[in-house]
Design goal:
single chain, alpha+beta, Uridine Diphospho-n-acetylenolpyruvylglucosamine Reductase, domain 2, Uridine Diphospho-n-acetylenolpyruvylglucosamine Reductase, domain 3, Uridine Diphospho-n-acetylenolpyruvylglucosamine Reductase, domain 1, 3 domains, 4-stranded mixed beta sheet, 18 strands, FAD
């Protein structure tokens, strides 16, 4: 596990951010166990996956970034379980489920994140949440300096949130799965892809949904109804196709996205007295 200096624009889907001088990629659980965390402030460690929900400051990130590369899928048909490495790409799981006739994972096909992020953020779409499939989560506890396995109930999953994962590096997750009709599984994957193509922007530089949906409302509907579709700040704009997606032009700045998010929250609160909460995470210094 080698320490590197990295351009943060290279490790996130928005392609924003300065540099980080303390960046480590992890290729095995053994490397985590052997890593010397004593000289690092564990409270300033951030773990990334595909970087699809993260926005780093244009000034960079002064903490330490860990990127696990634990990418695998292990299916135990007899026990009806699926073990997934934390770096496994969510659409790859949907494709695997299609090939092995595993039902109810089709919704993962259009989510551009990894398993670790899906656990932390309790990713969801089409009425599903990742937590409903989870049986156990395996992780390295940085405070205790040891590996742990906990049942899903330990994490108190709720809408786009989990608990008790601070200072932890997720290594893998075990899902309960069921077999299904291969024809219907294939049809649902195709339908989900078509729906995403029809309703969500194909722009390269975005991070999916910007805001969580407030209880009883769609964030996209509120933003659209407030007349903000197409509103632009410094090369970052509210998508014309889906108002809860903010898309960026090449070489735009993280600060512009931050300013657009702040502006949008202010407009929505003034109009509806509703406080929007970000689904994306801002890291580093912003004005």
């Amino acid at each position: 596990m080698k320490k590197n200096k990295v351009k943060l624009s290279d490790v996130t889907t928005y392609k924003f951010g300065g540099t980080c001088n303390s960046y480590f990629e992890i290729d095995s659980e053994k490397q985590i166990q052997e890593f010397d965390f004593q000289n690092i402030d564990i409270d300033n460690i951030f773990v990334i996956g595909k970087g699809s929900n993260i926005v780093f400051s244009d000034n960079g990130y002064s903490g330490t970034i860990l990127k696990p590369n634990l990418d695998f899928i292990e299916y135990n048909k007899a026990k009806s379980t699926l073990k997934l490495g934390s770096a496994t790409f969510l659409p790859d799981i949907a494709r695997y489920s299609n090939a092995h006739s595993i039902a109810d994972l089709e919704w993962l096909i259009g989510i551009p994140g990894s398993v670790g992020g899906a656990v932390r953020m309790n990713a969801g779409a089409y009425g599903y949440e990742f937590s409903q499939h989870i049986q156990y989560v395996n992780f390295f506890n940085l405070e205790k300096n040891k590996f742990e396995t906990q049942h899903k109930d330990y994490f108190n999953f709720s809408y786009r949130e989990s608990e008790n994962l601070e200072n932890c590096v997720i290594t893998s997750v075990e899902l309960n799965v069921e077999e299904g009709d291969p024809v219907k599984i294939k049809e649902r994957i195709s339908k989900n892809l078509q729906h995403r193509k029809a309703t969500q922007p194909a722009a390269i530089y975005n991070a999916g949904s910007v805001f969580k949906n407030p209880k009883g409302y769609s964030a996209g509907y509120l933003i659209e109804n407030a007349g903000l579709k197409g509103h632009c700040i410094g090369g970052v704009k509210v998508s014309e196709k889906h108002a809860n997606f903010f898309v960026a032009e090449k070489d735009s700045k993280a600060q512009s996205l931050y300013d657009l998010v702040k502006f949008t929250k202010s407009v929505i609160f003034d109009k509806y007295q509703i406080k929007l909460e970000e689904e994306i995470i801002f890291l580093g210094d912003f004005n």
